[in-house]
Amino acid sequence: MRAVFPEGFLWGVATASYQIEGADFEDGKGPSIWTDFSHRPGKVNSGDNGDVACDHYHRFSEDIELMKQLGVNSYRFSISWSRVLPEGRGKINRKGSDFYNKLIDRLLEVGIQPMVTLYHWDLPLELHRKIDGWESRDMRHYFGDYSSLVFSEFGDRVKHWITLNEPYCSSHVSYLWGEHAPGKRDLKTSLTVAHNLLLSHGEAVRRFREVVKDGTIGLANVSTFVEPATDSKEDRWAARIRDQFINGWFFETPITGEYPSELFKRFNDAGVQPLIEDGDMDLISTPFDFWGVNYYTRNVIRKEESSILGSEVVQGELAKTEMGWEVYPEGLEAFLYKTFKEYGKKPIYITENGMACKDKLTDGFVEDFERVDYMKRHFSSALSALKAGVDLRGFYVWSLLDNFEWSYGYSKRFGLVYVDYEKGLKRIPKRSYYYYRDFLERD
Ligand SMILES: OC[C@@H]1[C@@H](O)[C@H](O)[C@@H](O)c2[nH]c(CCc3ccccc3)c[n+]21
Fold this sequence. Notes:
Elements: E1 10-14, H1 17-20, H2 33-38, H3 56-70, E2 74-78, H4 81-84, H5 94-109, E3 113-119, H6 125-131, H7 139-154, E4 160-165, H8 167-175, H9 187-211, E5 216-222, E6 225-228, H10 233-251, H11 253-256, H12 261-269, H13 280-284, E7 290-294, E8 298-303, E9 311-314, H14 329-342, E10 348-352, H15 369-387, E11 392-398, E12 417-420, E13 426-429, H16 431-441
Parallel strand pairs: 1-2, 1-11, 2-3, 3-4, 4-5, 5-7, 6-8, 7-10, 10-11
Antiparallel strand pairs: 8-9, 12-13
Helix pairs in contact: 3-5, 7-9, 8-9, 14-15, 15-16
This protein binds the ligand OC[C@@H]1[C@@H](O)[C@H](O)[C@@H](O)c2[nH]c(CCc3ccccc3)c[n+]21.
Ligand PGI binds near residues 19, 224, 294, 405 and 414.
InterPro entries: GH (IPR017853), GH_1_N_CS (IPR033132), Glyco_hydro_1 (IPR001360), Glyco_hydro_1_AS (IPR018120), Glyco_hydro_1_beta-glucosidase (IPR017736)
Keywords: Carbohydrate metabolism, Cellulose degradation, Glycosidase, Hydrolase, Polysaccharide degradation
Protein name: Beta-glucosidase
């Protein structure tokens, strides 16, 4: 089926620094908020942490070989801010930047184009402790300085950049639901954090234009297809508001320079809206080049007046992954079409798509046929969106390796490659790895 995708379409795999690198205290790297959070009792399943993770820091050559054998032409990964700037600002840690230089050079040697995420949740702990991290408006300056530094360091070879991975998660999962670092639980704070993240996104785009003249930069959002539980007016309205909360707040605002109005009014009436200063919305809506869509599932929404969002998520009736997320490839096509139509007709990359399976080693192999089926159906959905006119440029499967799945620790496996945590982190390609390899090979 690959042949029906456009020439130059990027087929890749995606990872993130804290989830795979390990070496969390090595070669001058500073701690991140996840270093701190994962070491707090009760925050992560089984007390797991990213101290070692998949030890990608030491085994990146082996992992690039796995990508080369797989046949991908691109690889999405994130830079650990506190590996290159241990305290988030100030002097560069050359051993940290050397790691990324070696990684990028090796990728290019084997014909794999890097797509680099500047921030995938691992904020330098020093910035959190000294200036309250993302709660501070000053973060846009520090994020801007960090961005300029990595653009200067790697921008000659890296031409595709993402400012933030899922500001929805860095704000609401981290500051409202409290499930991710730093584990706070306050809506006004999470909306302030979301505002500072969007300001920082805009600042990074402005710095990018100064440094990398021949590259493109985008924003990767949680992209959950939202549907009403029934066709009632109430549920349809509830779904509209919830869609603004999960998606519109981070897809619409950087385009229009305004927060989604109905939801903003609700927050304003409740006195939890973010403080907007002169120039903020201009900075947030600094024009950028592409959307990153991280699609996994849908959310079915029912009216529920007791919540400030006026809704609650209900369990859908479709088959679910190990994360409890419904398998709903139709939602991908619908979401891509909506994003392309409503949010600026920009090129789109599917920057994450994949599933957690109950992967078991049997005679040294993992027959993850459910993941193969999930991939087939989502590739097909992406093709339908392309045929419907969506300017889709690439597809990154989450993830190359089983890795640290945040508050679930190592209990949830998303990899095309099994990582044997009991046996020296041995990498064992699963059935889905070979499916993807054959898909990419076939003309
Ligand atoms: O959970 C799998 C992956 C994580 O490992 C990545 O680091 C992260 O970018 C990522 N985001 C999502 C979507 C999470 C989500 C689903 C539904 C609603 C809100 C958030 C899934 N994943």
